[in-house]
Amino acid sequence: MLTRITEGLHAIAIPHTMLGLHLGTRMTVVTLPDGSLLVHSPITPTPALRAAVDALGEVSTIVAPNLYHHVYAGAFKDAYPKAKLVGPRALARKRPDLRFDAYFGDPGALPASVTTVHVPSMLDENVLYVPHLRSLVCADLTENFDEAAVTHLPTRLYLKGSGILGTPGVPRPLRAIFRDRRGCRRAIDEILGLDFDRVTLAHERVVEAGGPRIVRASYEWLRG
Fold first, then answer.
1. Which pick of 32, 89, 170, 199 has the fewest CB atoms within 10 Å?
2. What residue ranges do the domains of the chain occupy?
3. What whole-number distance in Å separates Cα of residue 137 and Cα of residue 192?
4. Which CATH fold topology does 3-223 show?
5. b/e sequence 147-184, b meaning 16+ C-beta within 10 Å
6. Residue 223 pLDDT level (bands cut at 50, 70, 90)
7. Is 166 left (phi over 0), alpha (psi -120 to 50) or beta?
8. pTM score, whole prediction
């Protein structure tokens, strides 16, 4: 169920398979300064999960952060119809069934206490910065797999070949989709200029401290 990361920040990690790889995924819940909740990269809103979320506060915002972390966004919006569903504008073309209330970049799309940095790639990643928690909340900005915890052989081989087994980073196959490298470098520099320490992410371990160092190291390949 929901795990407390720090005051005002909770998450739940679940198994998730993509292309036969056991990569997992994570939903993050941010308690905003007004007491309402922002749900990032939602998963299936089971009765137990809804009860845990409702115990924290009222859901005001649901975020589908990129073109891939959207599978359960519709179900979560159905569970919390009064909440604002926000995502990339391009996702509306991919998922015309989703009822978006706003898109990243629209005025007032997100609560004033949260800002975003768009990382241009085919993922269309939108990183949330939560200043009052000194945290980044993201999906695929970086991945952080503990080598000892990965027991599925095909997944181990993929992560090892991708250069990120036991080392935070961007998998080599995904680096090829960062076509606007100049724009991506600007986005990473903008992120590194923010006052954060923690990074919650979709795939494996939360970065509890030293977030800027991890992000910088994850994108050294981009500067080569």
1. 89
2. 3-223
3. 14
4. Metallo-beta-lactamase; Chain A (3.60.15)
5. eeebeeeebbebbeebebbeebbbbeebbeebeeeeeb
6. confident
7. left
8. 0.96
DSSP lists the bridge partners of residue 126 as 118
Interval 50-86: pLDDT, tens? 999 999 999 999 999 999 999 999 999 999 999 999 9
Report the amino acid identity of residue 133.
L
C-beta separation of 39 from 94 below 8 A:
no
Site of tokens 């909440």: 83
What pLDDT is stored for residue 224 in this prediction? 67
3-state SS assignment for residue 88:
coil
Under a CB-based contact definition with an 8 Å cutoff, are residues 9 and 199 in contact? Answer: no
Q: Predicted confidence band at 111 (pLDDT cuts at 50, 70, 90)?
A: very high
Q: Is residue 170 within 8 Å of residue 111, measured between CB atoms? A: no
Reply yes or no on whether the pLDDT at 122 is more than 90: no
SS (H, E, C) 131-195: HHHCEEECCCCCEEECHHHCCCHHHHHHHHHCCCECCCECCHHHHCCCCCHHHHHHHHHHHHCCC
Question: Phi and psi dihedrals of 37, rounded to 5?
Answer: -115, 140
Do the beta carbons of residue 185 and residue 222 sit within 8 Å? yes
Residue 71 exposed, middle or buried by CB count within 10 Å (0-12, 13-18, 19+): middle
Backbone angles phi, psi at 24, to 5 degrees: 70, 175
Contact (Cβ atoms closer than 8 angstroms) between residue 174 and residue 123: yes
